[in-house]
Amino acid sequence: MTAAHSPGDDVLVRLLRQLTVENGEFVEILRQAHRMHRTDLNALAVIMEATRSGGPPSPRELAEALHLSASATTALIDRLESAGHVHRTRSATDRRRVELRVEETALELARSLFTPLGEELSRTWTEFGPEERRIIERFLTVSIDATVRTKKAVLPPGRPRSGGPQ
């Protein structure tokens, strides 16, 4: 990389930044319409993804994923339980472990919120062939990995984010 070229000038960085802003605005509109905290939506996404990819997370795993303190995580889970979106259960394999499980209401909410965007994206992506889609998948995967690494690097160790409304 030359001194005259900075990462911010790169068209891919610019487009990713624009996509991030558009996604953020989309989620903010949905959050406000459903009177939910941004952290609550993020928590539901984390719980659903963890369940899909390996099993329901514990409250501690949720706290780590969202960079929240234990007390903020408890308040978050209490809100989600009160809304009927999640429930706490004991693990079938380790009774000491508490697991977070999504309720059908959370799945219905996710479908109602994100199906329109998913359908629009799917229609748009039909113009890409299988090889292009593999390249895009690889690009997105390495971009997500880079974002996760950078996030970890800038977050002070042992210092969770604030648990307040977002």
TrEMBL record:
Q: What is this protein called?
A: MarR family transcriptional regulator
- Source organism (scientific name): Prauserella flavalba
**What taxonomic ancestry is recorded?**
Bacteria, Bacillati, Actinomycetota, Actinomycetes, Pseudonocardiales
What the entry lists under Pfam families is as follows:
MarR_2
Gene Ontology biological process: response to stress
- Chain segments annotated as transmembrane: none
Q: Which domain of life is it from?
A: Bacteria
Q: Which InterPro entries does the UniProt entry name for this protein?
A: HTH_MarR-typ (IPR000835), MarR/SlyA-like (IPR039422), WH-like_DNA-bd_sf (IPR036388), WH_DNA-bd_sf (IPR036390)
Q: What Gene Ontology molecular function terms does this protein carry?
A: DNA-binding transcription factor activity
**Positions of the HTH marR-type domain:** 9-145
